[in-house]
Specification:
mainly alpha; 2 domains
Length: 153
C-alpha cells in the first residue's frame, strides 16, 4: 500500500504497524505546529493553523482504515469526542488490539492476496498464451484437451 493511499484514502484496512508508522509522524507534526502557534509572528501562527487543518484529513484516513481492520465503521472516529474515556478507548483499540485475521466487511487483511481464480485458458496472443504441441494444454482444436486447459502450460 502506498503512502498516499495510507494518508489520503479512507478505503481498505491497515495493520497496527502501518498505523503507528503513519500516526507518529502526524503526532509530531501536530506538536510542531502547536509550538508554532505560540509565536509572536502572526504569519507563523496563521501558517500553523493552516497546517493543523490540513493534517486533519490524513489523521482521519489512517484511523478510519484502522477501524476497518477491527471490522468497525469509520464513524467510530467519533468516539474520541467523548471526554477522556473516548480517547483512551480509541488509543487502545486502534494502537494495540489486533484486527480481524480473515476477510471482513472492509476487505482482506493487510498483505493478504486474493485466491487465484483458475479458469480455462484460450489462445490469446495478447496475453502471451499460444497452445503448444500435441498433448499439452490448449484448445481442443490445436491438439490440447479440455481437462488440461486450466493449467498454464
Amino acid at each position: 500500500m502506498s503512502i498516499g493511499h495510507v494518508l489520503f484514502s479512507i478505503q481498505g484496512r491497515i495493520n497496527r504497524k502501518t498505523y503507528w508508522l503513519a500516526i507518529l509522524p502526524l503526532a509530531v507534526s501536530y506538536a510542531v505546529t502547536d509550538v508554532m502557534t505560540e509565536s509572536a509572528d502572526e504569519l507563523i501562527v496563521g501558517l500553523a493553523h493552516i497546517i493543523m487543518v490540513i493534517l486533519i484529513w490524513p489523521s482521519l484516513a489512517v484511523q478510519t482504515k484502522r477501524w476497518h481492520d477491527r471490522d468497525k465503521s469509520g464513524w467510530w472516529n467519533l468516539i474520541s469526542l467523548i471526554p477522556i474515556i473516548g480517547s483512551i478507548w480509541a488509543f487502545i483499540e486502534l494502537g494495540f488490539l489486533q484486527g480481524t485475521s480473515a476477510r471482513n466487511s472492509y476487505g482482506l487483511p493487510p498483505g493478504a492476496r486474493p485466491a487465484y481464480n483458475y479458469g480455462a485458458r484460450i489462445n490469446d496472443v495478447e496475453d502471451g498464451y499460444i497452445a503448444g504441441p500435441l498433448g499439452e494444454s490448449g484448445p481442443v482444436t490445436s491438439g490440447g484437451s479440455f481437462s488440461n486447459s486450466w493449467r498454464n502450460r
